[in-house]
Amino acid sequence: MDALYSNDAATLEKLSFENFRNEVLKDYRIACESRETSLLGRKEVLTGKAKFGIFGDGKEVAQVAVAKFFKPGDTRAGYYRDQTFMMAAGIANVEQYFSQLFSDPDINNDPFSAGRQMNAHFATKNVDDNGDWLPLAKMRNSSSDMAPTAGQMPRSLGLALASKLFRNVEVFKQHTNLSDNGKEICFATIGDASTSEGHFWEVINAAGVLQVPLAVFVWDDGYGISVPKQYQTTKGSISEALKGMQKTNGSNGIDIYKLKGWDYAGMCEVFEPAIQKIRDTHTPALFHIEEITQPQGHSTSGSHERYKKPERLAWEKEWDCIKQMREWMLENELAAEDELNDIEMTAKHFVKESKQRAWDKFLAPVKKQTEEALPLLVSLAQSLEGDAKNTVASIADHLNGNKEPLRREIMKALATALDAAGHHQPAAGPLQDYYNSLRKENAAIYNSYLYNQGPKSALKVKVIDKYYDEHATVVNGYEVLNKYFDELFASNNKVAAFGEDVGFIGDVNQGFAGLQAKYGADRISDTGIRELSIMGQGIGLALRGLRPIAEIQYLDYLLYGLQPLSDDAATTHFRTAGGQSCPLIVRTRGHRLEGIWHSGSPMGMIINSLRGFYVCVPRNMVQAAGMYNTLLQANDPAIIIECLNGYRLKEKLPSNLLTYTIPLGIPEIVKEGEDITLVSYGSMLRIIAEAAETLDKMGIHCEVIDVQTLLPFDIHHTIVDSLKKTSRIVFIDEDVPGGAAAYMFNKVMEEQGGYRYLDVSPRTITAQPHRPSYASDGDYFSKPNTEDIIRVVKEMMAE
Ligand SMILES: Cc1ncc(C[n+]2csc(CCOP(=O)(O)OP(=O)(O)O)c2C)c(N)n1
Ligand SMILES: [Mg+2]
Fold first, then answer.
1. Measured between alpha carbons, how far is 688 from 668 in angstroms, rounded to an integer?
2. Lesser CB count within 10 Å: N end or C end of the chain?
3. Which atom of ligand 1 lies at the shortest distance from residue 54's CA?
4. Does residue 701 have an active-site annotation?
């Protein structure tokens, strides 16, 4: 300690050398532990303890070097090769790594996914158990990894953009728990082959335009499974191919660095100033890390000897990064051979022990279930006779002999024993009770957290009715939203909105007209035409605690942005077992207009691909505003599909625009009637209203129900109550046959037991199976029209 207070230059130099040496040895130790983890992990799969394994061997040295510059507040958006990075950053340890490999469902053992994800899919929590934001600015963060190649890229853009917004937007500056003046970087990692995906190019371009603190590391091991990079990348080099993106004096763009993945010292030297520059200037950068190896090949599913030539395999051995780092340390007298041998041996033991602990923890609760089940099975067998007795006894024997049982094996044993005994057999009671309790327990383990379950559930938001002043004005639909967004941005210090034409002109239907000038170009912004990364932008902002409203200009173009919504945002909460929330609101407009790509209503696609989202289909803009209010108080992602033909329809302006809420999953009866129930949503309701008016004159009185949201759907079963009264029901929408109308049909018939109250066959009225033909006649003959509805209702009344 005394030396610290000494002014002796030689002592200081010695000290700093000692610090440096220790740092290098620590990195070497982590690299060795990570390598041993990969080697042992593969064995665990090959001996059957784990299902599949994919490892970070060959990338260790680059990752210990990167992790040095990964600071509190930073977030990683990476992929399955990053175990060393995560270990060096203190986010993962070896035992946790094995727990995930074994798919341990206990969140305390696999804190990244509670056994829901394949191995090496990391995540850190961004919310606490109540859904409140953790102090992300003080934590080293990892967004949750996904298997789809390059799937991390769209979100990386938003994770980086958040820093820019926290730095530039006045009202965001107060969120010091989320950001320290926007100095946080998003570290994105990607394999060389995955840079072939459009996701990568779209995001690199957008980052170059936006100038956001994004550091992209390409781990270039030369292959995407078996396909070498000359078939992946122009010129066989991502840094060469990207040269035109290089930022020059006075231009935007990105910085590009080329490094060798075995060159520890070279990487550290470049990373330090380069990463600091990103932090300070928000200039994005790409680090092309070449000459990386894959000692064990791609994954446990195959062997690389099948596609790598002997010369390549020999080269990989020679240029193995750990071997190279070791030689460098010896050459530079940073360590003696013995010292390194020691580190390597200790790493091996440490990894073995960590693995064993993970395995024991994984098995313990299942073994306990066996111990609880066995006496119940034995006592049931004792009370039975004949075949049943033998069957149950042999099930008990079999279970007893299974030293490493799975939960499913216990469930199967119990169910089979109950079947053999007869469920009504009184002696089976205790076993049945136990079986039921395990079913509940397993459902809680495996089927939970699709949505927020706690206080941040949108379903728990207090319902506040809208009210109108005596002199309430009647305005166009778009003016309702414009006024609403104005009030929202004035009062909510977390919201940001962006999309194509959203900024300067205030969106194509003027919902944001005039608001960019008022709230700033960082808060209400135009984007390039890049739906995929607009969605990623929203996901990343949401993960960092902001409340983005990310716009898809027309519902038809949602397809471009669907992948990150479906694979990423919709599964975030689920795949982190509640550890992360992604409160993204996707705003779009659709249904009824004219033209193949301007009238889409692909609702079946949406509800089936976006489980984990709330899907709101407001019939007008007053309802839409109430839905925004509800969603903004909760933490789940949602999509609001406004009616494209509703912006110029007149609506009365509520007086409590900012406070009224529309509860999700609660249909509204928009017209009462006793003869037949018509169920629909969105723009269709106006056509139905016209049909219902005509039918009224014919003496047929329709009850018209607006479901308001498709996910969730009619949670209190209002529709079946209507059906009880009318005994006839039609589900109507603009989707293709078998789309959302079929979904509503299924919900009411099966889930609500609606079939019991039918006098005539239930029907659906949908669009034709093809895309709509152009113009008014095309619309009339492609989508359900008033006369179709009248005809079907009359047929049903006559049945
Ligand atoms: C969208 C998608 N397509 C295909 C796959 C199957 N797949 C998994 S990894 C991989 C190769 C990735 O290679 P690279 O990006 O170079 O990463 P590496 O594994 O070499 O580190 C492929 C094709 C996938 N997971 N996702
Ligand atoms: Mg590769």
1. 14
2. N
3. 19
4. no
